[in-house]
Amino acid sequence: MPAKDTHGSVITCPQNALIILVNEVFDSDDESTDSENELYQDEEELNEPSILTTRVSTISRRNVPKVAGYEEMVTERMLDYDFKTHFRLYRSTFDLLLGKININLQNQTRPTSPDKMPLITLWILATPESYRSVGCRFDVCKSTVFRIIRRTIDAIYEMASTTIDWPGATEAQNIVSANSSTAGFPGVLGAIDGTHILIRTPQHSSGTYINRKGFHSLQLQVVCQHNLKFTDCYVGQPGSMHDVRVFRHSEICTDLQKSTLFFPEDSHLIGDAAYPLSDRLLTPYRDTGNLTRYQVRYNFKLSSTRMSVERAIGMLKGRFRRLKFFLFPYLVFICKSIIAACTLHNFCIDENDLHFENSEELSSGGAATINSENNIYNSTVTARAKRDRIARLS
C-alpha cells in the first residue's frame, strides 16, 4: 500500500498493517505547518549561525541545578513493581524494547545515553509532567528532553508496521473461535470503536477540533482483538467529526469490501449503533421497544463481545496518561505519539505485560442512539439477513 511523508495525509504500513496518520485536514494554509516543519527539520539547520544566535551566544549560560545520577542511582535499584509504576513497563519488557530501538537511538550527535532516552520518553508518556520537570529529574536541559522524545517516538513509530498488523488466515480463525467462546457471538474478527484525545487549542482552524463535549480533541479509531491487541489504528481527524465520518475516511472502510483477503470464512467486525450496518460490520438492533427476544439477546451478546475494545482503550489511556491530554502544540507529533503509544500497548501484550491497575474504560461514547441503518451508508439486504440469522442462533 502507498505511503506518504509527514506532509501527506496517509501513512500506511506495508502489507497488512493499516496505520494511518492524518494531518490537519481542514486547514490548507501552508502557514499552518510552519511549527510542524520546525519540529522535524534537521538538527544541523537548527545550529546554523545567524545574527540572533551570535548575540545569544555572548550571554553566559545559567547553570541550573538538576538531579544528578537519577538513572544510575535510583532506577537501577528499583524493584520490578516500582519500575513499572513509574515507567509503565516491566524492566524485562523495557530491556526488550531497548534492544529493538537501540540502533536508531545510537545515531545521534549529542552524548545522551541510549538507555536514558526511552526512560525519559516513557516518563513523558506516563505522566503529565512538563519538559522542565522531567529534564530536572534526568539531568538534561528542556531542549534536550524535546529532542530525545522526538527521536524515541520516531524509533517506536517505526515498529508499528510489525506490531500493529491485521491478522492472517490462521490467526483469524483463532480470534473467531476465542470470541465465540467468550460470549457466543459467532464470526467476530474484532471490535471497532473510537475515542477522543484531548489537545491544546490548535493555532489554525481551532474550531474544527472542538468536539460535542466542548473541548479540543483528535479522533482515534481502533480495531482490537479479544486479547486487547490493536489490529488497526487511525488517528488525526478533528474532534468535531462524527464517528461515521471518521470511519468513512479510514482505510478499514475500504478494506471491508475485501472479504477474501481481510475477512476469511464470512467473519466480520462488530461496532455500536454509531457505525453503518454491513455484512462485514455488524451493529445492534435499534431498540424502539418492539424488539423480539432473539434481537434483545443478540444485542446483549454483541455488547458483551464489544467490551474488549472499550477495555483496550481504557488500558491504553491508563498506562499512558499523556493520552488524556496533550500539551504539545504540534499535531503531527501528537499523532505520531499516539501511534507510538498504541505500538507500546501491543508490544506489552505480546510480552505478557498486561495488568495495569490504573486502567480506565474511556471510549468516545459515540452517539449510540443513531440508527446505523439510516445514515450515509445503506444497509444491504445481505447484511440484514446475516444479522437476523445470527440473532436466531442466539
Topology:
Elements: E1 19-21, H1 34-40, H2 43-46, H3 51-57, H4 70-74, H5 80-87, H6 91-106, H7 116-126, H8 131-137, H9 142-157, H10 160-163, H11 169-183, E2 188-198, E3 217-224, E4 230-238, H12 243-249, H13 251-255, H14 259-262, E5 268-270, E6 281-282, H15 293-319, H16 331-350, H17 381-393
Parallel strand pairs: 1-4, 2-5, 5-6
Antiparallel strand pairs: 2-3, 3-4
Describe this structure in words.
It is found in: Nucleus. One of its GO terms (cellular component) is nucleus. The chain crosses the membrane at residues 325-347. This protein has 17 helices and six strands. By secondary structure, it is an alpha/beta fold. It has one domain. It has a six-stranded mixed beta sheet, with helices on both faces. Helix 8 (131-137) crosses helix 9, helix 9 (142-157) crosses helix 16 (331-350) and helix 15 (293-319) crosses helix 17. The radius of gyration is 23 Å and the shape is elongated. Residues 1-59 and 361-377 have low confidence and may be disordered.
N-to-C span: 39 Å
Mean pLDDT: 80
The SSE order reads EHHHHHHHHHHHEEEHHHEEHHH
Overall spatial form: elongated
Number of domains: 1
Largest sheet entry: 6 strands, mixed
Whole-angstrom Rg = 23 Å
Number of helices: 17
Spatial strand order of the main sheet: 1-4-3-2-5-6
Strand tally is 6
Question: Low-confidence parts, pLDDT < 50 over ≥5 residues?
Answer: 1-59, 361-377
Q: How much of the sequence is in beta strands?
A: 5-15%
Percent helix range:
40-55%
- How does the helix and strand content classify structurally? alpha/beta
Domain DDE Tnp4: 192-346
Organism: Artemia franciscana (Brine shrimp)
Keywords: Hydrolase, Membrane, Metal-binding, Nuclease, Nucleus, Transmembrane, Transmembrane helix
Cofactor: a divalent metal cation
